[in-house]
Amino acid sequence: MDLREFALKHVHQMPHCDQRVLHSPDDNCKYCNDLPEWQALRIMWGIAFTGHSGEKGPYGNAQQPCPAEAARGMESINSWGGNVPMTPEAEKKMDEHYASLGETFDKD
User: Is 15 within 8 Å of 32 (Cβ atoms)?
Assistant: First the structure.
């Protein structure tokens, strides 16, 4: 079994389209907050959450940058809606957006 097959066998769900994206519990992302053990590991390993690279860790320590940010930067990450924190406010905006698309396509 190669490493990709191994990973897919043991990790069944990623919170975002970019599997390196993981938001802080304080960011109130419903997808990331459904995986508190992953958030705890980021804290314990000293890896910054997405959008928080360059900040000190909870113990005042330096952190490794978020893998997604290190690879491509926040502008690129946030350019795809599937990677932004899904807060109640963001979800409402997305619902409104999809509703407006339906109105556009439903017109004759």
Answer: yes
DSSP3 helix / strand / coil % (the chain, rounded to 5): 55, 0, 45
The values of phi and psi at residue 107, to 5°, are: -75, 145
Global model pTM greater than 0.90:
no
Q: Which residues contact 21 (CB under 8 A, 6 or more apart)?
A: 15, 50, 66, 68, 77, 83
Listed in sequence order, the DSSP H helices in the chain are 3-10, 36-45, 67-78, 88-106
> Domain boundaries in the chain?
3-106
Q: Which three-class secondary structure state does DSSP give residue 86? A: coil
d(CA 53, CA 68): 10
pLDDT tens sequence for the chain (108 residues): 788 788 778 776 788 888 999 999 999 999 999 999 999 999 999 999 999 999 998 888 899 999 999 999 999 999 988 889 999 898 888 888 888 887 666 655
